[in-house]
Design goal:
Blueprint: E1 21-29, H1 38-51, E2 55-75, E3 78-94, H2 99-107, E4 112-119, H3 122-126, H4 131-137, E5 139-140, H5 145-148, E6 149-150, E7 153-154, E8 162-166, E9 169-173
Antiparallel strand pairs: 1-3, 1-4, 2-3, 5-8, 6-7, 8-9
Length: 174
């Protein structure tokens, strides 16, 4: 008996191929792009979505930030390492049949360092996560661990407090 398998990209998940589905395209723009040109690159990505029949529903403008790890990209005949990039995302609705074409076009864009296209659930669609806004609200104050540890043992930390503020909520550690 033979087993028939279908590539994941072709699975429709019970959705009519003409029905519009919500997606998010998260992207890193190369840090070598001039800051004034970042908006033009984002506009090019939005034009690709529109060309393939999609409608933009939301976005977060790309802003420069430090990457958590180095990303290598093959450019101009050699691999180059990048430690920062402009990050942004675009949310849109589009027919699932257009996704393969859109993905290929985005991956072929020379000014995109990396991208990720995900299908959104209804909950994700209703509650977008604003990356750059959350970075501005997150503040962490460091504790000097030398003051806490005494010769390999933990000292009495009863009176010690550290403030951690995450998304405008203050949490005290005692």
């Amino acid at each position: 008996m033979t087993e028939n398998t279908m590539p994941a990209a072709e699975v429709s998940h019970g959705v009519n191929e003409q029905e519009l589905v919500a997606y998010e395209l998260a992207y890193h723009i190369l840090p070598t792009v001039a800051e004034g040109e970042v908006t033009a690159v984002t506009d090019e990505l939005k034009a690709l979505v529109a060309k393939d029949g999609g409608a933009i529903t939301d976005e977060e403008a790309a802003e420069r930030f430090e990457l958590a790890y180095e990303i290598d990209k093959y450019l101009e005949g050699r691999y180059r390492k990048f430690t920062s990039a402009y990050f942004g995302w675009i949310r849109f609705t589009i027919a699932p049949a257009a996704i393969a074409t859109l993905t290929e076009e985005v991956e072929g864009h020379k000014q995109i360092l990396r991208s990720l296209l995900v299908r959104l659930t209804k909950a994700e669609e209703a509650n977008p996560f604003r990356f750059h806004e959350s970075l501005e609200k997150t503040v962490i104050r460091n504790i000097d661990l030398d003051e806490v540890a005494v010769e390999g043992e933990v000292a009495d930390v009863e009176g010690l407090e550290a403030d951690v503020v995450v998304a405008d909520e203050e949490v005290k550690v005692a």
